[in-house]
Design a protein that fits this description.
By secondary structure, the protein is an all-alpha fold. It has one domain: Up-down Bundle (Four Helix Bundle (Hemerythrin (Met), subunit A)), CATH 1.20.120.340. 78% of the residues lie in helices and 0% in strands. It is built from 7 helices and no strands. Helix 2 runs antiparallel to helix 3. The chain starts with 5 loop residues before the first helix and ends in a 10-residue tail after the last helix.
């Protein structure tokens, strides 16, 4: 994912970005498990913190207008984040492996959806805006000069 530039990221659909986030979380969690096995706890901690950051970003990117699936994914993301924190505190490689298995299943399912419906996935990213996108749009808006003095 390091090869992706900002410009290239802006050209990707939200579905493709979700796929990249899954890949990044899986990579970080695999690295964290290896670090725990090697007793390199500081490095494992850094990687697990990145996994939690990715889980928050995945949750923030959900489109809750799409129905119950968004609520279910949010619950799964929160579960993974909570258990990753627990694995980090306890330095429990098995618990981290359990979360890795869930992430790999999610990623595989997501990739399969993108393969079977590539046209729909590309257009779906342009139809609506996610809560994350709405938040960014509000933050980037220029402030009202009349309100600046308040």
């Amino acid at each position: 994912m390091n090869f992706l530039t900002k410009e290239l990221l802006y050209q990707k659909s939200s579905q493709e970005l979700t796929s990249y986030l899954y890949e990044a979380a899986i990579t970080q969690l695999k690295d964290a498990i290896q670090m725990i096995d090697r007793k390199q706890f500081l490095e494992a901690n850094k990687r697990m913190q990145k996994v939690n950051d990715i889980m928050r970003r995945l949750g923030a990117g959900l489109n809750y207008d799409s129905g119950i699936i968004a609520d279910q994914l949010d619950a799964v993301y929160n579960y993974i984040a909570q258990k990753t924190i627990e694995a980090n505190i306890k330095k429990d490689a098995q618990l981290a492996k359990d979360m890795l298995a869930i992430l790999e299943e999610l990623s595989a399912a997501w990739t399969e959806i993108l393969k079977t419906k590539p046209a729909a996935a590309k257009s779906a990213g342009k139809i609506g805006t996610s809560q994350y996108e709405k938040h960014i749009m509000v933050q980037e808006r220029n402030p009202n000069p009349m309100e600046a003095g308040k």
